[in-house]
Amino acid sequence: MLDDGLDLPDVEDIGTPAWASFGDLMAGVLGAFVLVLGAALVSQLDLAERLDAEQRQRQAEVARREALERALSGPLADGRITLKDGRIGISGSVLFATGSDQLHPDGRALLHTLARPLATYLAQRDEVLMVSGFTDDLGVAKRGPFRFEDNWELSAQRALTVVRTLMQEGLPPDAVFAAAFGPQQPVASNDTAAGRAQNRRVELSPTPRPAAARPSAASAASAP
Question: Where is the composition biased (Low complexity) (predicted)?
Answer without folding.
Answer: 210-224
